[in-house]
Amino acid sequence: MNRRAFLGLPVAAAAGSAWAQIDYAQVTPDRPLQFPRDHGSHPAYRTEWWYVTGWVKDASGNAYGVQVTFFRNRPGVSEANSSAFAARQLVFAHAALADPRRAGLLHDQRAAREGFGLAGADEETTRVWIDDWSLALAGDAFVARIAARKFSFDLRFTPTQPLLLQGDAGVSRKGPHAAQASYYYSQPQLAVSGTITAGGTNTSITGTAWLDHEWSSEYLAKDAVGWDWVGINLLDGGALTAFRIRDVAGGPLWAAGTLRGADGATRRFSPSQVRFAPLTSWRSQRTGVQYPVAMRVTVGQMEVALEPLLYDQELDSRASTGTIYWEGAVRATAVGREAGRGYLELTGYGAPLKL
């Protein structure tokens, strides 16, 4: 897939080709998020994703990390083509199970064009699927059903607190220019229940998860190579989000953070108030990519150290979204004590982000 198209950067249309100049919908501050509608898909925008990550445990107290992600992309190819086979919308999915008792991460991926009932994303509510992989808002909870090759999930994620609008009322800047933005909200502190199946064993689990839903048409600055993102469910009931977008030298092109306190009060932080500092690196023997899998993250006056559940949480998704990245369960400690659990995402370390 064309990297510039997926990331919302200009695409030159060749004369007579299927590529054309598409008038994608734009992110503007005068469009307030509306629910339940904005739980659904936004096909007029170039790219969109629903991200669920969580820490869960079994009856013996063993910890696992779970990830379920669905992407929707409007590639802008052959939109005038009346054929039902025309790829007007593409759907991708990733799923992963992190288990310290196993050798490495279990992960799988899917990709399909929308249509024929085999893949799609509803506009009215969260319901996105590829074959027997799905994420749907059913009543008061999100339900994920994933039938991967080496594992499966049947999980329920129930909200326990209000949505968290990122950025300015859900408009999240991703660069120095106002157009470099996305619509973005989170649902932290989701209560998880359900079943994980791996190695022929069904395991009942409970835990806490985080959902991100984000959509945009123009996303990254042209000098960006990737990003670091973290979402932490704090043990006191609060929630911490932080990200930085990196340039080729590894410095921040942009950064932002959000902190919801245990009392529900929310504070937002500017680029100068957010810092990521690597603590420990890990190099993948499969791809040779080195990642800063342990980080010190500072957001305003709050500083946390992130330690991974296991080092090898690399996802090779070149068969779907076309990139290699690290998405891992991490513990957050502050002042020497565990402060929360969540996920750290690291992209663009092997090569500039290519989806």
Radius of gyration: 19 Å
How many structurally independent domains?
1
Give the amount of beta strand, in percent: over 45%
Order of helices and strands: HEEEEEEEEEEEEEEEEEEEEEEE
The average pLDDT is 89
How is the main sheet built? 13 strands, antiparallel
Can you give me a brief rundown of this structure?
This protein has 355 residues and is mostly beta strands. 1% of the residues lie in helices and 54% in strands. It has one domain (33-347): Beta Barrel (AttH-like fold).
Protein architecture, described:
By secondary structure, the protein is mostly beta strands. The protein has one domain: AttH-like domain (AttH-like fold, Beta Barrel). 1% of the residues lie in helices and 54% in strands. It has 1 helix and 23 strands. Strands 1, 2, 3, 4, 5, 6, 7, 8, 9, 10, 11, 12 and 13 form a 13-stranded antiparallel β-sheet that branches. Strands 14, 15, 16, 17, 18, 19, 20, 21, 22 and 23 form a 10-stranded antiparallel β-sheet that branches.
Key terms for this structure?
AttH-like fold; mainly beta; 355 residues; disordered N terminus
Q: What is the secondary structure topology, with strand pairs?
A:
Layout: H1 3-6, E1 47-57, E2 63-73, E3 90-98, E4 106-113, E5 119-121, E6 127-130, E7 133-138, E8 141-147, E9 151-158, E10 164-165, E11 171-173, E12 181-198, E13 201-216, E14 226-234, E15 239-246, E16 252-260, E17 266-269, E18 274-283, E19 290-299, E20 302-308, E21 314-317, E22 323-334, E23 337-347
